[in-house]
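Q: My labmate handed me this sequence with no annotations at all. I'd like to see what the chain might look like in three dimensions before we decide whether it's worth expressing. Could you predict it?
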Amino acid sequence: MQETELSISNTVSDLPRVSDIQKEAELSIRKKFHRQIFSPFAKACKNYQLISEGDHIAVCISGGKDSMLMAKLFQELQRHRKMRFELTFLVMDPGYNRENRELIESNARDLGVPITIFESDIFDAVDTVEKSPCYLCARMRRGYLYSKAREMGCNKIALGHHYDDVIETILMALLYGAQIQTMMPKLHSTNFEGMELIRPMYLIRESDILAWRDHNRLRFLQCACHFTEACAAYRNDEESNSKRLETKKLIAELKKNNPFVETNIFNSMENVNVDTVLTYKKKGVRHNFLEEY
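A: Here is what I predict for the chain of 293 residues:
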């Protein structure tokens, strides 16, 4: 596959002044949304040991609200200078249409995020796939991001999954996958030795991300999928029909009778009683309760 790369740098010579959009967005992170957004971001980084001294992190930006906010939070964390680490803001263009590509680039400029864009042909590759194209697309995306990040000297990639993604994944695995598992805050790569995946937005609620976006009057890419990109650029409130959306609606319905249901789902992964589990897997090996009965 042939790959091209474009770097959009926000050096002093490129941007003679900080935009008002950037100023307002950063001020809102430090003031209005510090407790709801920055504090849980910093807490996740600390509690799950996501960042180490000397790390070079590829902050993977899809163009949506989550990853763009994650980029700003990393910049804010780096500004505190409590730990030395390097950031590369990495955008993979899997075949966006012109409107969506320009939206990502303009948001990066307005928010002061110096992105590096590289291109791939993932959308073309999955166009002809009939079974599970979304799964294949996601796997390919991650592989390309790992590969490009390592090429650029990074040892970690950061993805913008948030608290709601975590609890929805737990419930989806149970209801549709017949398994109990969660979306981990960090993972060792199985195919790229020495590389890790981290999720520093792990404790941030999606409602707070939306509130930050709307407070700053920002428009982000809604869906990066080639099959639904016609809706992508400016429809911030539309979601495609999917199992995840079904699960999101189910959680909202359960919350009407139990306001703690979201916290309970999340905390269930920290309160697993192995003595009451029939079988479980450890490093790919299945164990049965009868082994120690």
